[in-house]
Amino acid sequence: MRVLLAAICMVLFTATLQAGSLDDLKTANEAAEKGNADEAIRLYTQALAAGDLSPDDQVAARKRRGGEYSSRSLIADAFQRRDDARRLRDNAIDDFTAALRLKADDSDLYLARGQDYHMNGQYDQAIADFDAALKLKNSPVTVIQRGASYRAKGDYDRAVADYTAVIAVDAKDSGLDGWEIYNERGIAEFFAAHYDTAAADFDKALTLGSSTRTGDVLWLPYQAAWLHIARARAGQNDAEELARNAGKIDLKQWPGTLIAFFLGQVKLEQMSPPSSHGSMGRARECNLSFFTGEHALIKADSAEAARLFLRAREVCNIHTVHYLAAGIELKHMGK
Question: Interior CA angle at 21 toward 16 and 25, to 5°?
Answer without folding.
Answer: 145
